[in-house]
Design brief:
The protein is of the alpha/beta class. It has 8 helices and 10 strands. Strands 1, 2, 3, 4, 5, 6, 7 and 8 form an 8-stranded mixed β-sheet that branches. The longest helix has 17 residues. The protein is globular and about 50 Å long. The chain starts with a helix and ends in a 24-residue tail after the last helix.
């Protein structure tokens, strides 16, 4: 936490998107790992305008009852500290990433989850979107790739995320969570004929290079009918110091330099750094037929958490 507390503001101070915003990081913090002193270090970053907190959760051999109890407990803890958005009726809303990618009991052996009907339980407890995937080459990877989509069919079945309807302009569901995927592709390694899986994960050994950024954009993840708004969601396990280098070290600086130099010219590209909540707000705005500058829709439906201070 100390590495992030000192390193992320230093990095963010060097870069701005088309709206004058610094890089944004959504800290999907594991509920079962919560300790007050972690958040004491994390919260100055949130108050400084560098990101937001959402829920990450690892669990094994859970039941619907234990899952609901644990999630509501963690949400209450986070919300009391000023994190998480609220809907107009005051209900806590949150984004979610499942530990070990085992969403909706997605592993054949049933380990690292245990709850087939996890998607409806997430919705019932206030989840607005899941950001777990891609997970390739893990067995939990869905057949649907490079999409923003709604789960359809029986939401209580195992791996219910395998059946989906693409998000599109002119239609929204209000009775289920949205599924937001990051880029997934087979790409050639630079200077080699070998093929690699591009699964949008940033690590110290695999940072956001120009070739990787290009591949993220090439997957063209968008709401159908609004192709000019391209959504790029990448992730990192940034707590261990050696992996934090993927964003706080040389790799992070070079990634943001490339983003600003090549994809923020105001002519062909405009770069918008967003949190998970802002990304979903913009996606909902697209579904509702909104056009123009997506910056106008960062807080379209879900307002910033109380701890976030806007300049």
């Amino acid at each position: 936490m100390a590495a992030w507390q000192h390193g992320y503001p230093k990095l963010a101070a060097e870069f701005r998107d088309a709206d004058g915003r610094p890089p944004q990081h959504t800290f999907f913090f594991p509920g079962e790992e919560y300790r007050p002193f972690f958040f004491d270090r994390l919260e100055p970053l949130i108050e400084g305008g560098f990101g937001e907190v959402e829920l990450h959760l690892h669990h094994d051999d859970a039941t619907a009852e234990s899952f609901r109890h644990d999630v509501l407990s963690y949400l209450d803890t986070y919300a009391k500290r000023g994190h998480l958005s609220r809907s107009a009726d005051g209900r806590v809303r949150y984004g979610f990433i499942h530990g070990n990618w085992a969403l909706a009991n997605g592993r054949p052996d049933g380990r690292r989850c245990g709850v087939d009907n996890e998607l409806p339980l997430l919705f019932e407890t206030g989840c607005y979107a899941d950001f777990t995937f891609p997970s390739a080459p893990d067995i939990t990877q869905p057949n649907i790739v490079n999409r923003i989509y709604w789960p359809v069919g029986d939401p209580s079945r195992k791996r219910a995320y395998e059946w989906g309807e693409r998000a599109r302009v002119g239609h929204r569901y209000h009775d289920r969570i949205l599924l937001v995927q990051g880029p997934l592709a087979l790409v050639r390694r630079p200077g080699s004929l070998r093929i690699r899986i591009e699964a949008s994960s940033l690590t110290a050994k695999d940072p956001g290079t120009p070739a990787r950024i290009r591949s993220w954009l090439d997957q063209h993840i968008h709401v159908q009918g609004r192709p000019e708004w391209v959504f790029v969601k990448v992730h990192t396990h940034g707590a261990p110091e050696h992996q934090a280098e993927s964003l706080l070290g040389k790799g992070g600086y070079e990634m943001h330099r490339e983003l600003n130099a090549r994809y923020n010219d105001g002519v062909r590209y405009s770069l918008h750094y967003v949190t998970a909540r802002e990304m979903v707000n913009i996606a909902w705005a697209a579904m509702d037929g909104k056009t123009g500058n997506p910056n106008a829709y960062r807080d379209y439906e879900l307002a910033p958490p109380p701890l976030v201070r806007r300049a």
